[in-house]
Design goal:
It is built from six helices and eight strands, in the order H-E-H-E-H-E-H-H-E-H-E-E-E-E. By secondary structure, the chain is of the alpha/beta class. The strands form two sheets. The chain has a four-stranded parallel beta sheet with strand order 2-1-3-4, with helices on both faces. Strands 7-6-5-8 form a four-stranded mixed beta sheet, with no helix packed on it. Helix 3 packs parallel to helix 5. The longest helix is centred in the first third of the chain and has 16 residues. The protein is globular and about 65 Å long. 30% of the residues are buried.
Amino acid sequence: MCSTSGWSWALFSPDRKLSLPNRQTMNPLPLRAFVMYAHEDKPVRDKLLQHLRPLEKSGALRLWSDHEIKPGELWDQEIRRRLGESDLIVMLVSDDFFNSDYIHDVEMTEALDRHNRGASRLLPASPDIGAVAWYRDNSDDKTHSVKGKTPNELGLYDMSGNVWEWCADWWGDYPDGSVRNPIGPTSGVTRVVRGCCWYNTPRFCRSAVRYRITPEFRSTHVGFRLASSPQ
């Protein structure tokens, strides 16, 4: 997943179904969402919680962050307990987030373990799109070298902005229901590109946004990323 400017995009997007944790390990609604953040980003955390309140009021989410820890409670124990009960883990990615020893040693260790077991879903979000992406407002109308911005939680750079990236998928409608990594039809006329590019506005940098172009198309705003499929 990529880290972009918005918050609601990371949880529910009109363009795709959210790939939720395994139904056998996931609690019924409301989903319990743990908000992971650096304390330097408290103002951003508050804005995130404000954006997500409608989902909480609708009964879809139960939000929790460490500001709810009551005086006298063992904060480390409570954080570990809440992480261990979470269905969704929303990560406010920033430089301070990556520099936090507690986040790295405790919260991310537990979060990645739950994600890998299918017990929770990691949902990274960045409070500042300019920290993670080259786009219209900061690109100077050109592409830039890789690693010029902050990576996402997997250590991947430029997953948003700079250039649209070719995907192996042929363009097609998403299947019905909850799915993880749908691969699209077996053939087609146009292939999928994702990630937006240096001349796009922030709304195109959402991870859910995709576009379609013919395979022979060439442009300074379209590129590719070398990757291999697990055997």
